[in-house]
Amino acid sequence: MAVQGSSDILVDELYETTHQLRRFVEARLRTGGASVARLRAMRMLAHAEEPLRMRDLSDLTGVSARTTTSIVDSLERDGLVERVRHPHDRRAFLLRLTDRGVECHREAEAVDRDALAEATAGLDAEDRDRLRALLARIRKATD
User: Fold this and answer.
1) Which of these, 117, 115, 95, 119, lies nearest to 32 by C-alpha position?
2) Which pTM value belongs to this model?
3) How big is the CA angle at 96 (ends 90 and 98), to the nearest 5 degrees?
């Protein structure tokens, strides 16, 4: 049972489950040199139709500009991301995955998919549908 950090044990259990799931996936990704934060950044860059500005990547991942810069710096150091000059703004740079970054992203996605499948293996299709519907009701109430 989750440690109470709010006035509602359900909220505490949702929070604890989310964090436990992240730690579970993080441990799997770490074996290949990735992390949830790095995977999210690579995912956004991989799915973008064109290279992204740092600010756009920050918005898409939902993390601060400072954190995004740290993540991108580490990805760049590892040869997974490159900064290219913006074609219309000489002061700005755009971010894109390198060929090595595309491959690393593909591998990390497979690890993520396998870890999440393992974590949710105890849920049948009906359980998954019911849980998704309940979570959607909470999101709607807080929108």
Assistant:
1) 115
2) 0.85
3) 125
